[in-house]
Write a structure and sequence with these properties.
Blueprint: H1 2-36, E1 39-40, H2 42-59, H3 61-64, H4 72-82, E2 87-88, H5 89-101, E3 109-110, E4 117-119, E5 122-126, E6 129-133, E7 139-147, E8 150-151, H6 152-162, H7 168-178, H8 182-188, E9 197-203, E10 206-212, E11 214-216, E12 229-234, E13 237-242, H9 249-263, E14 268-272, H10 281-290, E15 299-302, H11 306-311, E16 321-322, E17 336-341, H12 348-358, E18 363-366, E19 375-383, E20 390-399, E21 414-415, H13 422-431
Parallel strand pairs: 13-14, 14-17, 17-18, 18-21
Antiparallel strand pairs: 1-2, 3-20, 4-11, 5-6, 6-7, 7-8, 7-9, 9-10, 12-13, 15-16, 15-20, 19-20
Helix pairs in contact: 4-5, 6-7, 6-8, 9-10
């Protein structure tokens, strides 16, 4: 009987242990399901908010240079206060976006993993408002006044809350890109579950409306292109359409053609970086070298941080503070160079235009870039532990070569309004040279 009692006790203990193991497995499965469902506990939200804040303040140059935007402290306080309760990963991503927007740095952001749905049709923001664009790419007289019954200015305010803007041109760019983006419209109060969305337009004194549906199209399609670079002769002008700042075979082929043209007597060159999102500035420097020019030097400050140390090699000059230098610029009096820009010109493409303007290498024609000439850039990637949200943060500050020029806005030498024709303006300009 005593032996039997011990056996029963052992059996009972085994059953209890198995029961505990099963309960923990069930708990783990429930946690995994909650995570897969995109729901974060209050503790997870708070932890991710703290992690994001720590990454930003220990990495971004604004903090070590004590150049913090006026709106940042309030945005940080609001972010950390709101990040204290259970919410979906998407809702947390919106909180994080609003927080990062206060940095006014277009290179620092998180990746939104939401819908690519945008309203059908094409629209573009001008100084006068948001207008419909026809099939030929021309801005019509139809000004958008409301979307889904929500005043368009309310949509603009929503965009400015979540998207960083470095200058007024960035506001134009952001409103063009995001005004028809479904998640932004939902945040602005538009009922996007309806089959169609009512757009109200004003054309002069006439008010009209139309029903529009959503389509699958990335809001970033403004920067989509099939070719990195193309070139052709426009009269006696060698035209280069640089759609992405990338080195490689395509650029090398264009440079060979450019050199042959210059050797053959061509003296007028046009580089078009409208709608160019940037990339590798070496591509821009190679184009200038091909026509016997050299850019002035940007100033740069590099911030040392744990994130930077983990993602860069030992060649980085930590905490370097190199001053801008105009003296390195080299012109070529034989070449009349024009660079075309618009609000969608960004990063290294903006740098090319700044080089040309500050170094007196040529003439910039078009609309200001959304990227400030003096800005933050060269990004490091990160991922938040609980939500899995990915993002990037700048760890360098760039200063334009001409310290007396406007630091926030690249102002073209020959301005062309949004909706104008910079290409024809440039051709006419070169004809007069």
């Amino acid at each position: 009987m005593k032996k039997k009692g011990w056996l029963l006790l052992v059996a009972a203990l085994l059953i209890a242990v198995i029961s505990v193991i099963v309960q923990w497995q069930l708990h783990d499965n429930q946690t995994a399901e909650a995570s897969a469902d995109g729901t974060l506990t209050a503790a997870q939200v708070k932890a991710d908010a703290g992690q994001l804040n720590s990454i930003i303040e220990s990495t971004h140059p604004e903090f070590s240079l004590n150049n913090i935007p006026a709106g940042y402290p309030a945005a940080k306080k609001s972010f950390l206060a709101a990040a204290s309760e259970k919410m979906s990963s998407d809702d947390f991503a919106w909180l994080a976006s609003a927080y990062l927007a206060s940095l006014q740095d277009g290179h620092t952001s998180i990746s939104q993993t939401q819908s690519n749905e945008t309203l059908r049709g094409s629209y573009r923001m001008t100084e006068s408002g948001l207008f419909e664009v026809d099939d030929s790419g021309n801005i019509t007289g139809k000004k958008i006044t409301a979307i889904g019954g929500i005043p368009v200015n309310q949509v603009f305010n929503t965009i400015s809350h979540y998207e960083a803007a470095e200058n007024d041109a960035a506001v134009m760019m952001n409103n063009t890109i995001w005004s028809t983006y479904r998640p932004i419209l939902e945040r602005a109060g538009v009922d996007c579950d309806k089959r169609t969305i009512l757009i109200t337009e004003q054309n002069g004194t006439q008010t009209s409306s139309q029903e529009v549906t959503f389509q699958s199209r990335s809001p970033y399609s403004v920067w989509k292109t099939n070719d990195i670079v193309d070139s052709r002769m426009i009269g006696d002008v060698f035209y280069i359409g640089l759609h992405d700042c990338q080195t490689g075979a395509a650029l090398d082929k264009t440079i060979d053609s450019l050199k042959q043209a210059v050797d053959g007597g061509v003296t007028r060159v046009m580089i078009d970086v409208r709608n160019n999102p940037g990339g590798n500035s070496d591509a821009c420097e190679k184009l200038l070298a091909a026509i016997g020019m050299q850019p002035p030097e940007y100033g740069v400050y590099v911030r040392k941080s744990p994130l930077a140390m983990a993602q860069t090699d030992g060649t980085v000059d930590w905490n370097a503070d190199i001053k801008p230098d105009l003296s390195t610029a080299k012109t070529n009096p034989r070449i009349s160079l024009v660079v075309l820009t618009n609000e969608f010109t960004y990063s290294s493409a903006t740098m090319l235009a700044v080089w040309v303007q500050d170094g007196k290498l040529g003439t910039v024609i078009g609309y200001p870039s959304a990227n400030s000439p003096s800005c933050y850039g060269d990004v490091l990637s990160f991922q938040l532990k609980n939500s899995g949200i990915k993002g990037q943060v700048s760890f360098k500050r760039w200063l334009r070569p001409d310290t007396s020029a406007d630091q926030r806005m690249l102002r073209p030498d020959v301005p062309v309004s949004i909706g104008g024709d910079p290409l024809q303006t440039a051709v006419n300009f070169l004809d007069r040279q």
